[in-house]
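for the writeup, i need someone to sanity check this before i put it in the appendix. the sequnce is what the collaborator sent (i think, or maybe the updated version? ugh). structure was predicted straight from it, no edits. if anything looks off just tell me and ill rerun, i have time this weekend
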Amino acid sequence: MNVRSHLTWPAVACACAVIVCVVALPAQEKRALSPRGSAAAHVGGTWTNVGSRTFVVGGGTYEGAKWIEITSGRPLKRGRDLFGTGAEYGKGLLIGAPLWRAGADVSTQLKSEVPLKIGTGTVPAGDYTLFIDVKPNDWTFVVSRWPAQQTYDPNNKTALWGAYGYTPDKDVLRAKMKLETLAHSHEELTWEFLDVTKTGGNIAITWDKTLATVPFTIGSGT
């Protein structure tokens, strides 16, 4: 008897679906809970030959600009109460660290090709780590010279994983952030640049219904 002749199309389709699910499952399990992401601004440049045929909106070329980029892990809310209230506010974000890494896994990193004036200080062009000191209605943006571990090594005391082991002796500057409550909940933590002009803008972080920003201007030497 030919067994194949007794298999109906629905049965074959169902069997194939099971095989696909079994094959796909390991790939889903390997996916990071907090995907990596980045935000960038290209500042200080000048548009030339606007309207000429190029592969950009409006045509032309943006010349003489420099890059500012922030990279971080992007955790998802997944229905959690992220910030807490009262005496517990912000503690859930620390997970035993002195400051919030404002991301996940590898420390949040800033790379700028231009000096940035933030608050009363200046961040020279270079590579840095970013943290936030989180208190009720009082967030402080922290730029640090601590290097970031790209893979966790508990024996490495010269670089940080997240904010574990952070000390303020390598701080470049601290600046107060403006806090706003949004109308919609944002599922994934996001760093971005807002209201960017040729001379500056705002560095922003959004998660759930909280938006925190700190203004910056481009320093000399661009």
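The chain has one domain: 33-218. The chain has two helices and twelve strands.
thx in advance!!
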